[in-house]
Design goal:
Number of domains: 2
Number of strands: 18
Strand order of the largest sheet: 1-2-3-4-6-7-8-18
CATH class of the largest domain: Alpha Beta
Distance between the termini: 7 Å
Structural class: alpha+beta
CATH superfamily of the largest domain: Diaminopimelate Epimerase, Chain A, domain 1
CATH topology of the largest domain: Diaminopimelate Epimerase, Chain A, domain 1
Radius of gyration: 18 Å
Helix content: 10-25%
CATH architecture of the largest domain: Roll
Order of helices and strands: EEHEEEHEEEEEEEHEEEHEEE
Low-confidence stretches: none
Largest sheet: 8 strands, mixed, barrel
Number of helices: 4
Amino acid sequence: MELHFYKFDGAGNDFVLLDARHADPLLSVEEIAHICHRRFGVGADGLMTLHEGPADYDFEMRYYNSDGHTATMCGNGGRCIAVFAHLLGVRGGAKKLRFQAPDGPHEAEILSWDPLARRGVVCLGLKDVPKASMRQVLQGTLLDTGVPHYVQQVKDLDCYDLVGEGRRIRHLPQLGPAGANVNFVEPLPDGKLHVRTYERGVEDETWSCGTGVTACALVTGYNHIHTSGGDFHITFDDTPAAYTHVRLTGPVALNYIGTLTINR
């Protein structure tokens, strides 16, 4: 079976995207993991399929981590799939799109897109986060911004053993039966917050994580976030009961388009 795919990244967090509106490839866990493998496949932090949306939605997003298993949401993935939908001509190539993801509805706006450089900036709306759902555990905070995230401040983040500590903390029972993504943060002299993330399902550090930087912004109050893959701007309304109107803005790039063969 041949699959026509697009390879995107959102601030270094990279994805394989497939148009499944007319034919769902019904990929197995093993096939997705193979496609995402960086030595034997295309190589990616995750894979997404774009489907026809239910009523009142432009499309449906389904997301899979690089281990082949589903996840409820991906912030950078949501920003990338908005550009993918635009390039596919969804709703006439609209730049404002409403889509359904496993964690609920989302709105995305393509603020800029250079068709020659194949780069742009996309703003994504994420779900409200009730303050009652945020818990102080271990040495940090646990919250859900579409997927669960643990946020902890450390010193000398550039030199920090993120993979070792992230892998150790990720499965601790305090983070729930399925574990959580682990984010370490450190304020920078320029007023930004430096964030590094260990992602479950990838089981490694990713260059950025959209739901992760959003979680860090809500916990710390910082709006400008720096990651290895690029910078983000996060806005939200801080109400007594919840963080609402959460918006994640950052870079998106289309790296290449190709065809791969799945042997079945």
